[in-house]
Design goal:
The protein is an alpha/beta fold. It is built from twelve helices and eight strands. Helix 1 crosses helix 2.
């Protein structure tokens, strides 16, 4: 192997208030993330209409977290840390390049592919910044890549990928490290009684019925996190970010928080288990909106665990999967073409 290009896949986020509307439009144009049912023939005008209708309210939310999503900067930090780790692994004999590829805003997956082409990188590893597989997230990113690669004749790259890593050792360790940091914010005398609320982005129930593994993998991650802990905290799972009238996974995070408060919980640590990079769902939906709901319901100390971002343990989780799969590929090739 003379080169290795890694593309970190995620949905992205608006980099300014002006980009909120086109970001939303790109999101609603994605057939994998939202279905328009019998109105599918009108997807483009509907996507434009919904984006225009929602943009002003969404802009207000972004204004409250600095006027843009931090996901691009944070993802680039993850990319830089991963590239450094892979350089340590492979040394000077392998050209390493790690790019970020987003679905709905810059840098787009197409831009990451073009950067690899310009640099002459031929071995590509697609690494989702989604630990849990859903057709709406990782599946959508992979489809975008396949469509782009097919348009180039499928000759540009040799591609490997990982679909999901819900119980990967370093990922679980990174989660527990962040949970410990969150618990440290509570007074010593109350820390043992803190309730843990794992919150994941919801999906329509219809996706689960179609066999989408996302919700099952979320449960696997949570149970493995708690299996490795010895502090006996009470824990629960809920789902956030519902869009549209369809039935989504329950319980809803807001409803669950209010229920816990009604049951006497006064100290709550919210754990964004499905989000590895801070963005609007963690910084606004959880840390601002849910905080207000929790305090109104009677929660006395409410904390939100930061996303993993460029946690060294999380970077190791990404690196180890790439290294292991590239080594496996090398062994297979050597067995087929022995010297």
């Amino acid at each position: 192997m003379k080169d290795l290009g890694v593309i970190l896949l995620n949905m992205g986020g608006p980099t300014s208030l002006e980009s909120v509307r086109p970001f939303l439009q790109n999101l609603f144009l994605d057939k994998e993330i939202i279905s328009f049912g019998p109105m599918e023939f009108a997807r483009t005008p509907l996507a434009k209409f919904i984006a225009k209708k929602r943009a002003e309210k969404v802009k207000e939310n972004y204004e409250m977290i600095g006027g843009k999503s931090p996901i691009a900067e944070l993802s680039l930090q993850q990319a830089a840390a991963l590239e450094q780790r892979l350089r340590r692994e492979y040394g000077d004999g392998v050209r390493i390049r790690v790019e970020v590829g987003f679905s709905y805003w810059h840098p787009f997956i197409r831009e990451a592919m073009e950067a690899m082409e310009r640099d002459g990188i031929t071995n590509i590893f697609l690494m989702p910044l989604y630990p849990h597989y859903s057709k709406t997230t990782t599946g959508s990113c992979f489809k975008t890549w396949r469509d782009l690669h097919r348009s180039r004749g499928n000759h540009s790259f040799k591609v490997q990928s990982v679909k999901a890593y819900p119980v990967q050792d370093d990922f679980i360790d990174a989660m527990n490290e962040r949970i410990d940091e969150g618990l440290a914010r509570f007074p010593d005398q109350r820390r043992a009684n803190v309730t843990l609320l794992f919150s994941a982005h919801g999906t329509p129930v219809s996706l689960v019925e179609q066999g989408d593994p996302y919700s099952h993998q979320i449960h696997e991650s949570m149970e493995e996190v708690m299996r490795r802990r010895t502090d006996g905290h009470s824990y629960h799972l809920s789902f956030q970010s519902k869009v549209g009238p369809a039935k989504w996974l329950t319980p809803d995070t807001v409803d669950k928080t209010k229920q816990l408060a009604a049951d006497g919980v006064r100290d709550l640590l919210v754990i964004p288990i499905a989000f590895v990079t801070d963005h609007i769902e963690t910084l606004h939906e959880l840390n601002i909106e849910l905080r207000e709901d929790a305090e109104h319901a009677g929660i006395e100390q409410f904390e939100v665990m930061p996303a993993l971002n460029d946690s060294p343990k999380y970077i190791e989780a990404l690196a180890s999967q790439i290294i292991q799969r590239m080594a496996r590929k090398s062994r297979i090739l050597q067995s087929r073409h022995p010297e």
